[in-house]
Amino acid sequence: MNTHNARTIRGLIIFAVSLGLLGTFGFANFAHISIAEAAYATILILLTHYDHYGFADSKSRLLVIILILSSLGLIAYLLKWLAEYMMGLSDNVRRLRVKSKVEKLKDHYIVCGLGRVGSQVAGEMHHEGVPFVGVDRDEAKVAEANERGELALALDSTLETALTEVGISRAAGLVACLGEDSLNLFVVLAARAMNPDLYIVARANRPENEIKLKRAGADRVALPYQIGGYHMASMALRPNVVDYMDIMTGKNGLTELEVEEMVVSEVSKLAGRRLGTALAEGEVGATVIAINGADGTSRVRPTGKEIIYKGDRLIILGSKRDLTAASELIR
After folding, report:
1. Is the pTM of this model over 0.70?
2. Which helix (H) or strand (E) holds 313?
3. CATH number at 105-228
C-alpha cells in the first residue's frame, strides 16, 4: 500500500472517531444522559442513520442530523476510494503483465514517444508483426496503445533506468520520436552508450538538428514536416504517381503488397548464386527491386543475372506469403 492510500485510511479513521466523540459528548451534554448511553446512541445513529433513542431537545436533534449526513458522506467517500483502489490494483496487474511480456522480448524495437508520430510508428510495427514496446510518460497514451493490443509502458524514455526496463540491451533498434529535439538527443545519447550495436532512428523537427542527432549516434534522422511537405507537393504535382505508390505500399487498403529489406546471411541458399535462377528454383513470386551490395555498391532494377554475395541487402516487393518464402531462401 502506498503512502497516499495509508494517509487516506488514517484520515477516514480519524474522521470516524471524531464523529463518535462528537456524538457521545454532545448527547451526554444536551440530553443529560450517561457517557455509555450516549456512545451507544451515537454508534446506532452512525450505523443505521436513524434516531432510535428519540431525542426530544432541538440541540440533540440537530446533532443527529449532523451525524447522519456526515456518516453518509463518509460512506460515499469510502466507496469512491475503494473503487479507485480496485482500479489501481487492476492497472498494476495490467502493468505487471506488460512488464513480464517485455522481459521476454529479444531483438525487438523500442518506440520512445507515443504522440502523433510515435503512435503511427507503433501502428505500422504492430501491423507488420514486429516485436516492439512503446514508451511514453503520458499514462493515457500508454493505455490507448495497450487497448490496441500493443505493448507500452508509462516511463520517461530520457532516463537510462527506463531504457533498461524495456530491454535496450536485447533490442535490435530504437525509434526516438518525442516532440522536442532536445529530448530525442538525450534518448539517442543514452541509447547509443547503453547498446553500441543498436540501430537508431530519430525524429527532428528542425533541419539544423539533424547533424546533431547523427553525431549523438542516430543512424537515420527523419524530419516529419519535410516528409509531409514533400508528399503533399507530390500529390499536387504528380497525383497519379502518388496514387500508384500508395497502391504498391498498401496504404489505401487495396493491396497486400509490402516492401521489405532482407540481408543475405552466411548460410543463405542464395549466396554465391545468380539472383534470377535462385528465385525461380525456390518458386518465389516476390520481386527484387534493388540490391545494396556488401561492398557499398547499389543496383536498382536487377536483371536476375547478378551474383548475390553474403551480406548483400535485397529490397523486395511482394505479398506477405511471397516475402515469407523469400525470407526462407535468403536468410
Report:
1. no
2. strand 313-318
3. 3.40.50.720
